[in-house]
Amino acid sequence: MVLNPVISKLAGKLVVLASASPRRLEILRSAGLRFEVVPSWFKETLDKGLFKAPHEYAVETAKQKALEVARRMPFKHLKTPDIVIGADTIVSVDGMILEKPVDKHDAYRMLSSLSGKEHSVFTGVAIVLCHEKENEEVDYQLVDFYEETKVKFADLSEDMLWEYINSGEPMDKAGGYGIQALGGMLVEYVHGDFLNVVGFPLNHFCKQLHTQITPTASPAHKVCFYNSITKICRLLTLFIENLPIANFVSALPSTFPKTLQALFTASKLCLFDLLHSRPGLDAAQVAQEIKASEKGTECLLEACVSLGLLKSIEKVYENADLATDFLRSDAPFSLHGYLQHCNETMWPLFSHLESAVQEGTSQREKAFSKHMLQKTSSSSREGKLRFMKAMHSIAKITGKTIATAFDLSTYKSACDLGGCTGALAYEFAEAHPGLSVTVFDLPAVVELNEFFHPQHPDNRVSFVAGDFLKDELPKADLYILARILHDLPDEKVHILLSKIADACTAGCGLLLSEIFLDEDRRGPSRGLLQALSMSEGKQRSATEYSLLLKSHGFITAHIRHTDNLLDAMLFTLLQCFSDSAEILD
Ligand SMILES: Cc1cn([C@@H]2O[C@H](COP(=O)(O)OP(=O)(O)OP(=O)(O)O)[C@@H](O)[C@H]2O)c(=O)[nH]c1=O
After folding, report:
1. Which one in 157, 219, 342, 363 has a CA-CA gap of 20 to 30 Å to 31?
2. Residue 581: its pLDDT value, please?
3. Dihedral of alpha carbons 48, 50, 53, 58, sign
4. What residues are annotated to the active site?
5. Are 420 and 395 in contact (CB under 8 A)?
6. What does the domain layout of the chain look like in residue ranges?
7. Cα–chain-centroid distance for residue 379?
8. Which atom from ligand 1 is nearest to the alpha carbon of 24?
9. 516 secondary structure, DSSP code
């Protein structure tokens, strides 16, 4: 008997059912499985037209339900599950997909379309296996499958239909009926797994578990605490991107703008650099060094102490770990460049958000004086350098996570398109000893690279100047597109992807790194807030990126949601598409 050993394999693991369906709970409880129920917040709103077959829709919805819970739990429940189970049941008849009816008339429409006919019930199931890595990031491994059961309804008279609808039973059930209760009276035959119709294909599930789950012991309740680096990066970045992180700064949002400005000002005045090279200065000495008033400097120092950025012992100051690790300009994970960009570019732009929303146009002219327009313009050397410093900060913080997201051992050469200062390329070279990486970026960007000396230079990283929309791309087995696509208008996205597909041979890879929006576009906030400052591009979900890349011949191989600002997806080229008719809008 396969069931018992399978269920007992899960003993000691934190198993979570990402479903509010009482039937699923009952089926799995009766089988002896011990689990917690955390209903998914994923809204079943995927575009059905995008799926070739009904079961693909059910499987994708099940995946999204389970992934949403798997990703939410470490933050909201402070524990990482071992296994999350999601499911979605749909009824399919005459090419239509029927879900739960929205009202009685909808139930009538559904039931009358089933009357006297055979239909299919599909349940898509996703099992997400969560592996917490040493750095406490979580790796998600997905197993999915579906089960089909055929059901034939008797001819239903109007009276029967309305009597059944008025019983209230149809409302929370796919297709508007419950085969396990009154709805059983409408059914002439069932071919296949009965429990699949009720909402969960138990037999198929156990078979999958049997082959997919290895019986390694794991603590029942792993409490997820971020290690300090991940935590500080996250907090600081959320902080900068305007999210309510009440643990870090109390009494938000009233203190929020003041906190940000204190951070920006301290960073701009190089306070953290000064206290790194000369710890133990008092307010008067600091004031003298940064050429500022004594009173103002003292207020700023005290504010920074209250924010946990500085420490003070008997009126002398030194950097707290947070400042040492992230805020001094030469820290390995320095946010200095990014803070400067936020202060001098993002802040003025966002203070014109109201008119940006009203007019739907860039507010640069309004937000900046002539002098600042020049300083922040991407066509000026200073503006370019400023932007490069900001991108360099982000690449340093996210680089390792992206570079180690996938097994890339089959690739020998990579090309980071728009790779800017090479910060990401160096991470890839360090993480993959067999990989050479070419950074391809505009001549004016490559020229300025002398300002960014890598900590560990590596002769497997080289720079080639060119325009990825116009020039021939360097040959590589793997193309990297990190934070590029979201910023481009659709036509440029397609030009770039076509060029990559043309440069690739079958089996070549494409690694995409972006913020992936939740499928229902309810988060993450950092992606949706970033969209407010984008005039041309577009934020997309993982499914949208998959479909976009698929239209150029790339198929999704792996997805990684990293919780370190950027997510990543690895694609493989199946065949080369040069025909623009293949391109989806
Ligand atoms: C055909 C049929 C369906 N159902 C129920 O229909 C819901 C489908 O909806 P779902 O979207 O898959 O699930 P949900 O109930 O919204 O829960 P969740 O997993 O949180 O989305 C599930 O409940 C199933 O049992 C029955 O109880 N009996 C039947 O004969």
Report:
1. 219
2. 36
3. negative
4. 88
5. yes
6. 3-223, 228-334, 401-582
7. 31
8. 25
9. P
Ligand 1, from 21, 29, 45, 179: best to mutate by most atoms within 8 Å of Cβ? Answer: 21
What pTM, to 2 d.p., does this model score? 0.56
C-alpha dihedral, 37 to 543 to 398 to 340, nearest 10°: -110
Nearest CA residue ID for atom 4, ligand 1: 173
Q: HSE of 355 in the Cβ direction (CA atoms, 13 Å)?
A: 10
Rg of the chain over CA atoms, in angstroms?
Answer: 28
CATH number of this structure's domain 3-223: 3.90.950.10
Q: Please compute the mean of the pLDDT values over residues 409-432 and round it to a whole number.
A: 94
Candidates 91, 172, 519: which one to mutate for ligand 1, based on the most atoms within 8 Å of Cβ? 172
Q: Would you say the CB of residue 89 lies under 6 angstroms from ligand 1? A: yes
Q: What pLDDT digit, counting tens, does each position of 52-72 carry?
A: 899 999 999 999 999 999 988
Q: Which atom of ligand 1 is nearest to the CA of 91?
A: 1
CA–CA separation, 462 and 448 (whole Å): 14
| Ligand 1 close to Cβ of residue 126 (< 6 A) | no
Which of 290, 320, 296 lies closest to 308 in space, CA to CA?
Answer: 320
The predicted pLDDT at position 134 comes to 61
178 lines ligand 1 (CB under 6 A): yes
Q: Cα(581)–Cα(585) distance, rounded to whole angstroms?
A: 10
| Fold assignment, 401-582 | Rossmann fold (3.40.50)
Q: What spacing in Å lies between the alpha carbon of 131 and ligand 1's midpoint?
A: 29
Q: What is the arithmetic mean of pLDDT over 318-324? A: 87
- CATH fold, domain 228-334, is Arc Repressor Mutant, subunit A (1.10.10)
Of the chain, the percentage scoring pLDDT greater than 70 comes to 86
- What's the burial of 200, exposed, middle or buried (CB within 10 Å: 0-12/13-18/19+)? buried
The pLDDT value given to residue 450: 73
